[in-house]
Amino acid sequence: MTSSDPALPPRLGGLTFHGPLSEDRAARILGRLAAAGPADVLDIGCGWGELLLRLLDAVPSAEGTGIDIDAEDLARGRALAEERGLADRVAFVEESALGTDRGPVDAVLCLGSSQALCDPGLPHDPAAALRELRRLVRPGGRVVLGEGFWERAPTGAELAGMWPGARADDHLSLGALVDLAIGAGFRPAWIETASAEEWEEFESGYRYDTEVWLAANPGHPLAAETRERVDRQRSGWLNGYRGVLGIAYLTLVAVAED
């Protein structure tokens, strides 16, 4: 099933960023990164690479690489790069980020994708992901990490309403996450978290096109499975992690080596 066929449910076409990130916050994050003048940028789990492309547009001398395993998102990124005249300065590569040798670089973007740096056979380990991010950035370089954290300890009922197998140790507190970043060799230059409005924009935008499609195509052969999927996603948010799961955007500076 692909979103290129108008008879099928669309996929994420209404989203600018694949996460709870506003235009204003993105502009502030990019402004701080651009001021550092990176020569090369690596985007881990880039999707269609919207932040990567905007950073390259802001720093005309920079080059970038986005890696992801979703071919459809990568194709969207390449098309956006062509539209914006950036195709000669960016590569979108379909490959795993685990153990990647594409560093060190001056700047790394990793928003909602730290699991791509961890062993898929083990529980998600933010400490391991942060060590990998430190390996991939030069001393003095920047990392922007978008990572989940618990706003407060979830109740058993809330965990049961989230994603399948959700556990209290799936995430850390914000303080513990920042402590891990420091332990991995970073200084936390900027700490910010997604607002309730950003979450609502993302969660509704994630499903908007599909909900409109479902309303217009209730008898489509794919309607039942699509309806089940989006209903499950929405319920996980409203009955599970809404107001409990946060997203931290950490701008980290790699400590110089002794």
Explain this structure to me?
This protein has helices at 23-35, 50-58, 71-83, 126-136, 156-161, 174-183, 196-216, 223-241; strands spanning 40-44, 63-68, 90-94, 105-111, 137-150, 186-193, 245-254. The chain has 258 residues and is an alpha/beta fold. A 7-stranded mixed beta sheet has the order 3-2-1-4-5-7-6, with helices on both faces. The longest helix has 21 residues, at 196-216.
Features:
single chain; 258 residues; alpha/beta; seven-stranded mixed beta sheet; 7 strands; 40% helix
Largest sheet: 7 strands, mixed
Helical residues, percent: 25-40%
Low confidence ranges: none
- Number of continuous helical runs: 8
The strand count comes to 7
Topology as H/E string?
HEHEHEEHEHHEHHE
Strand order of the largest sheet: 3-2-1-4-5-7-6
Radius of gyration: 19 Å
